[in-house]
Design brief:
The structure is a homotetramer of 344-residue chains. Chain A has twelve helices and 14 strands. With 344 residues, chain A is an alpha/beta fold. Chain A has two domains: 124 residues, 3-Layer(aba) Sandwich (Rossmann fold), CATH 3.40.50.720; 161 residues, Dihydrodipicolinate Reductase, domain 2, CATH 3.30.360. At the A-B interface, strand 8, strand 9, strand 10, strand 11 and strand 14 of A face strand 8, strand 9, strand 10, strand 11 and strand 14 of B.
């Protein structure tokens, strides 16, 4: 089978280099184009030396005509960019996966409030499929435009999903205490993300409000068919990769919660429910597309504690985008996503 | 004023070296003895090179007769050791601060269940003063035996205290999501604490039950005069020092929570309530005896989020012990504890 | 083509888990046996959770009869173990790759002095092929017993090789200043490798003498056909993976050194000579089998500086072992070694 | 004795916060002014939360009239700033310590080549005293203008000094292989110093030429009274603080090198010669003004290896500046510099 041609628009950040790594090793696609205004003409392996010898491609100026010839286009651009450029591509029949937030939130007013800009193409938001395969697998297959989920959002949604779908916990006071490595903040120069600032320290941030909150709420409400109350507190840990979500929910209905998780995810290729008593480590998914989950009920009390880990750049971004691409282009859902996590 | 003589029993761990650092720079005491069976005869600065030129002392075999001549004795031994040796010293009139857990839990049955051994001197537990100065300052001053609090316990108790003393939150479903650096696990050889295991990764541990839970419950119940329900989840972060507690409580009574915290701690030398909107970083207390706290009410909902950070080896162990010593020996409470946190 | 069966003797350390990761993803082999006396009966994925869902195998008691049925056996045991067990396997016709040091040093007296034990089978040392494919490719192909090189040794040898083979530098006063991540010290419990000891700090160690010195000298002398003088200083950096060698040599003969390196390694699948002016980072080879090298001549003086990086667990251990296996079993030399380094 | 008034010009970087920490705890001075155009009006403890409760001061606009009233002025500004502002202050009789490079290099042409700008006041360079107390103690006492040494420069100079002063090694081919934590690069936003870039990786940089090279050469030539040849290779380690220098020199004259170091530094308050066989760790000087040095002669060969560690922000910057201030203002040289390194 001839390889499909894919493109990346904007690929100089961490999501970009991770997409490059995964696509360079993918058996069914050929990465034809990667655009970057700032780096046009430069070899990708000069910017990202891990790709030396594995990917012979240069950044190029964006060129819609060339992009249209590709079978699928990834947008790895900052929030607010894809919504400007995607409409023309969609109109031309292209298929697109946006790794930013432009098409994730169905309620335009909510999106505009949290992202602080006016949306350029609300109609496309309605059409876009939210790319969480564990929830929307079939819709993704046939989608023309996929909104790839946020990193925290993926870890929290997969962690809460079985409880909410089965309505066995109180949905008014959920808590998601999340921790991310620094790569989640991207590759832009900033004082806060200097190693001198973020190294050997731990802190919460964005407690008054973080943009992933409305996206999580949308997912959880969809799962439980009710309005959901959630306190979401993100933290920054002194490590490069990984998200760890510690989720708290009050029990409302007795059930074999472990069995419920195992049943929900038994056919999912990338969700791994650990045996009772286990504690997942972020390094157990470093570089892999897995989400590992374990479930606890401390002292047999009325609070369930769910632990959910992903690699923020893989299942939380580029890996999930490749998984969505696999569905859209009819490949094996696992294609190009078989690398085992690097431990230690 | 002549300096008081103090001793450390068992000082080869991280709590020990931190006590050595603080006592070597203390204006009112002279460290006369540090015992260690395994390191007897060896210079402390050979084991801990940061002390070269600052402390000229060798580890010695434990000798009760010599210890009794000291004005105060710190026990920095593993759990279960102090309870064997302290009774004789107490009987001889010595004053003791135990940095381990032997005298922290008033309910002997609870202690024995969580620590897995029979208590050797229950009567002394009843007499011991729990050494959290922010709660027990006066009792500490006159105490003969002080039980120095656990590290997580200090961060969580100081974080919840104003809310519980004022009974403005629901006490049945408190949550303490805590994160510690690796030094909290001590200096004993173990695979789990190798940098190859703990580096660049994040995980929860002890979710089914951690020994600090009963101690926290004891403190919180004491503050609120009711039984308290708490879910406590400790995590390990890839850093050396620091504890960060993220505390969640449901509001039951409206109040100016920020004002309440500021009032409660306004005269406390080592508790710093940050301005509204702030997020404390563990590095802001690295090497210092401070506890920094901030308070949030996300989206003006019904959940309060309290952030509380300490250095686990200082306010969480050796610094708090020195603070207790200062009270017991009539020094300025801040003596020897004026070093400013190392940032970056 | 039917997959070949391979076994690992002793696989509970970092070399072991890395071999497991690489072999689990290898297209031409099936991992049939992994032995460990201490972990017999336990699932490998319980010990190494990154392997969950990718490798369904349990540790077993060593059983020579079963091992003999395998096409190739890896020894990932501590120094001194393989030399006891390998003779019987060799006598039975098995092919073996030893990842420890037992068969690396041809001069038995030297080996015994540095490793502090008597060698159990000096005759096999003479027969063993030193498994550095860039030097011994053809001999490896037909070898029955391969001694897999040390991690520092690989980085230093590949870095110096072109200069020594061409005799363009003084060989009497070479300097190898090397830095390793903590995984190089293995997965055994030790105080020195606790994150509380090795985190956020940097130090040299073993300056009076390190076991990799005689092995490096053997390689360099072989390359230059003369006796070589080398000062080798290893250091420990606060990171998990990676070796960085900074090599210094005095120029004795003018040459286009860059061209010399490019020519020497142009057909090597795993040695990458960077363009002039570059500085390789250890993360550019994290998880990959590459060695990246760059060459500098500061201020056009008489000292050449060569920078050479590898992942100590891949090209420095398990990856090189798989490369050797590929040669021995007639596979593509790159088989199972195509994963791209994880950056960031 | 009334406290002396001191000022800091430009104090928003890591050198600035470290000066603030040391001066806030200094017994003989009062920090009166800290200027910053960008942060004028903001509380220093808002920018640097470790100072909360310890320093009640706001950044202010630079005001020469106010600066002149201080007994001493520190410049913690980027290279090229002090040379513009210092002449007026010197003319007015002020005493100044510049922590940047403006007055370090006596040869103006060399300075201009390495720093890429024209020098604004060459005459002052001639007058400035190079502030390495171990070499220039008496000159510093009476200096009006002190050029505080570079961080790498301090570690390398103190490490080589005894050998060069005694002329027992070859000075034509010295090697300084140095490693720094990320705080050495300052607090300016940059991609290269993001934790996502610098974390969990190790690399050399600036091998073709680093600005500290001419400064080191100036010091070493001064010590040995000859021209010196040096290869200097700086590296970046994934840690926040610390410099480790590994120095290599060829022996030309037999001597008791250990005794030579001990004699040279026996009266130095901040240079600690370790016993034979030791390896200094950077953490043993974290937060302290010490330089710890050990000496090795591997295999009794002809190469000496000197290991020298400092905290780049203390003995490598702010601590050395305070040491110079102590000399200039007639205080005990150790005043305000008695804090013990933080280990672990």
């Amino acid at each position: 089978m001839a390889k499909k041609k894919v493109a990346i628009v904007g690929g100089t950040g961490y999501t970009g280099v991770e997409l490059l790594r995964l696509l360079a090793g993918h058996p069914n696609v050929e990465l034809s184009i990667i655009t970057s205004r700032s780096e046009a003409g430069r070899s990708v392996s000069e910017l990202f030396p891990n790709l030396r010898g594995r990917l012979d491609l240069c950044f190029s100026e964006p060129d819609t005509a060339l992009l249209k010839r590709c079978d699928l286009i990834f947008f790895a651009t900052p929030n607010g960019t894809a919504m400007q450029q995607v409409p023309a591509l969609i109109a031309a029949g292209s298929r697109v996966i946006d790794l930013a937030a432009d098409f994730r939130i169905k309620d335009i007013a909510v999106w505009e409030r949290w992202y602080g800009m006016q949306h350029a193409c609300p109609a496309l938001v309605a059409e876009a499929v939210y790319g969480l395969p564990e929830v929307n697998r079939d819709a993704v297959r046939s989608a023309q435009l996929v909104a790839n989920p946020g990193c925290y959002v993926t870890a929290v949604t997969l962690g809460f999903l079985p409880l909410l779908e089965q309505n066995v916990v109180s949905v008014g006071n959920l808590i998601a205490n999340c921790v991310s490595g620094v790569s989640g903040a991207g590759r832009g120069a900033s004082v806060a993300m200097l190693m001198g600032e973020a190294g050997e320290s731990f802190k919460a941030y964005g407690v008054p409000g973080h943009r992933h909150l409305p996206e999580i709420l949308q997912n959880l409400s969809h799962a439980t068919k009710q309005e959901v109350g959630l306190t979401f507190v993100p933290h920054l840990a002194p490590m490069v990769r990984g998200i760890h979500a510690t989720l708290y929910a009050r029990i409302t209905e007795a059930a074999d919660y472990q069995a419920l998780y195992e049943a929900r995810y038994q056919h999912e290729p990338f969700v791994d429910v650990l045996p009772p008593g286990a504690h997942p480590e972020t390094r157990s998914v470093r570089g892999s597309n897995d989400c590992r989950i374990s479930l606890h009920r401390p002292q047999q009390g009325n609070t369930l504690v769910v632990l959910s880990v992903i690699d923020n750049l893989v299942k939380g971004a580029a890996g999930q985008a490749v998984q969505n691409m696999n569905l859209m282009l009819g490949f094996d859902e696992r294609a190009g996503l078989d690398s085992i996590a690097l431990l230690p």
